[in-house]
Amino acid sequence: MVLAMRLAMLFAVCFFALTWQLSETVCAGQVIDRIKNNGELVLGTPGDFPPFSVTSDQGDLIGFDISLARELSKSMNVNLRIVRLPFHELIPNLEAGKVDMIMSGLSITPRRNMEIAFVGPYGNSGQAFVGRNEIVESLDEPLDLNREGLTIAVLQDTTAEMTVRAVLPKTEAIFTRSLDQALIMLLNNEIDGIISDYPFCKVAEFRYKERGFSVYDKILSYEQLGIGVPAGDPLFINLLSNYLNLLIGSGALKAMQEFWFKSSDWILDLPDLTVLKDF
Questions:
Q1: Which of 29, 45, 79, 155 shows the smallest number of beta carbons within 10 Å?
Q2: Dihedral Cα 243, 247, 248, 249, nearest 10 deg
Q3: Domain with CATH 3.40.190.10 in the chain
Q4: Domain 127-216 listed as CATH 3.90.226.10
Q5: For the segment 65-113, what is each residue's pLDDT rounded down to a tens digit?
Q6: Cis bond leading into 86, ω under 30°?
Q7: Are the C-beta atoms of residues 53 and 65 closer than 8 Å to each other?
Q8: H or E element: which one contains 173?
Q9: Residue range 150-206, pLDDT digits in tens
């Protein structure tokens, strides 16, 4: 993680020079103007989706998406303000101009892309199942989850919901408003498992493996992840695209991915959801 931060700092000067040149030919829109006037970049994210964005036991937001946004704000020489929003409110708040960009392991889909613009992809994912060990051990292929008597939780208004409705019609699905709610239901033995992005499922497995939960490693879908932004500001979209390219070229993006997706050190900073009941 330290390496990623240093790499980001090293290419910051080049990034400024590049975006200054681009500003000569690409018109700024209301997003860039708002960021300049307010001196802040506003990120919308739910904060319950590790390893992308999650609330630590100290109340701070951490995660891969958060690190990416923090380094971006430093490169732009503005503050980062994070607004916690339920997943289904991300796009409406972005369209209303209440946030400048949205991130939460957000899958790039044609339906979403008809409403907002995406910068990326900056990673790949897919829908997976985390649940009781006996369920996982009974599976030969992902479609074996399509059976009566199986109850799963799915975050509403997500690609996970689309996947479940399309390929698991026999399975009883409970659509939740947060992933914390889904995970608590699993911990309370109210459901058999959760369908969500593979990285989230692997973090849940690590956190609560002693409770008899594991991940089925064959995914139900393939998806690419991006940063959601308003469509009306070509300079902001161009700035983000060049920023991602610099992260990739410098190796900083890979270093961030190594820390958040392959290290477990940060997971120790997460609260134990078994003590939370108010959902």
A1: 79
A2: 90
A3: 2-125+224-270, 127-216
A4: no
A5: 999 999 999 999 999 999 999 999 999 999 999 999 999 999 999 999 9
A6: no
A7: yes
A8: strand 172-176
A9: 999 999 999 999 999 999 999 999 999 999 999 999 999 999 999 999 999 999 999
Query: Which letter does DSSP use for residue 207 in this model?
Result: H
DSSP strand pairing (53-55 vs 61-62): antiparallel
Give the helix/strand (H/E) hosting 225. strand 223-229
Place of tokens 């971006």: 72
Q: What token pair was written down for 239?
A: 């700035």
Token pair for residue 103? 């991130």
Given CATH 3.40.710.10, say whether it is the number of domain 2-125+224-270.
no
The candidate with the shortest Cα–Cα distance to 248, out of 8, 61, 6, is: 8
What residue has token string 């690590």? 206
pTM confidence score: 0.85
